[in-house]
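Let's practice the habit of predicting before peeking. Look at the sequence and jot down your guess about where helices and strands might fall. Then scroll down.
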Amino acid sequence: MERQAGRIILLWGWRRALVAFLAGALAVLAQAPYDFFAVCFVSFPLLVWLLDGATSEASDGFLRRLRPAFATGWWFGFGYFLAGLWWVGSALLVEADSFAWALPFAVVGIPLALAFFYGFAAVVARLLWSNDIGRIAALAFGFALAEWLRGFLFTGFPWNAVGYAAMPVPLLMQSVSVTGMVGMNALAVFVFALPALLAARQHLRLGAALLVVLVAADAGFGYIRLAAPEKPAARSLDVRIVQPAVDLTEKWDASVRDRIFATMMGLSAKAPEPGHDRPQLILWPETSVPFLFTERPDALPAIGEMLGDGQMLVAGVVREEGGSATGSRYYNSVVAIDERGEIVDAVDKVHLVPFGEYLPFADLLGRFGLEQLVAGPMTFAAGNERHPIALPGGIRALPFICYEVIFPDLVAVDATAAELIVNVTNDAWFGDTPGPYQHFRQAQIRAVENGVPLLRAANNGISAVVDPRGRIVDALAIDVRGAIDVRVPISNQAIVSSGQRRINGMLIMFLLAVAACILNVRQRLRAN
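Done guessing? Here is the structure:
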């Protein structure tokens, strides 16, 4: 092992960049749908050894001394994000005649930009570097800090955060309910990088002990939580989730809108599955209504006739405000419709997708002929606030539209305000690629973090009901048209509040930084 590590450390130029790129790309196999987390025990030790050799001349200035570390982290990140996000280009091929030109910018440009976060992580780690276990703590702190920043800088895009690699199954998901994603990102990198100690043998026993203790604690906590009897649910909700599997090439085609709407209505009105009661709540995916209600005044009465007493439909729609005189504003929304065919509540999407749902710097970019790429025939405005929707039985559900569910701080459910997470999405843009599986996994983790059930309706999969401990109760696969009926017990199983979870994660990150600093200073003192 020492010989192999030495070869990695001494790599330079394009060979160093290639190994870093391949190590990052390999780590993607730990994410959904592959879930082969063992590869990270190879990828991150390789990164440690590469950073061991990321040195420069002593006479170089401060910034020049950091360049080798930044380049190493950047190439690792470029490989990771390119291998993990290539499927984004599928959305541009839905209307290839209009948007195929943007394929290189989406497939390559996004990873190029996101790689800067991992370059930053490597620089932070290298500033605290030492020759022992301290560098493992430094790398974990650097990545945790970078992933935290990736969650909100430039509107945020925390997709495939490294912590998800450590949570392929519910048994290994439970710790996130205490540590949050900040803590899980830090601990995952720390554990994955520990095998790098096999090369130098320094702190090897300590590293082996920490690896065993942390993995055993994670799995043990998961086992205890999953085996523990669930609190009796005072209430339950009978739910039907509809997955229409609409072809996106027809989504906004006026000639087939009636057929799409009829499909949705038929799936919603069918008899309950054997052993299930009539659904109290029917859930439709994001923008599932293929027209504006203002254009089709007959649609709401038809929905009212389809719904029985005490039933409610929550549907993803495009909502219009204003008129031709003042100019319309469009919102990507969910609306609640009662048995009278009346909209009783609506929640607009707050966190829009840049370039997909709106064009940043629209006036400037419009001069160059750029426009939004994929979301639909109109530009959306962002909603002002999110609030729970009151469902039958007085149950309160907090709705999140599409990729809003990947933001842990956004999906911080206050148990006194909401008892259920609802996620509506339209992942059909990405076909049967890793994208929908990754999206679902991140939604699944939100249920575990907050300790409440998750209802998820997707146009083309994956639609599912997830219990408060991350277990899939029932689901519809990609490309399946149908509906699932589930009785959902309503119980709050959160261990700590979202605020405490955030504090715990920051504390873990802080302790790793302190450990790295102490060992870095000790090494410097010994050298003098």
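How did you do? DSSP finds 16 helices and twelve strands in the chain.
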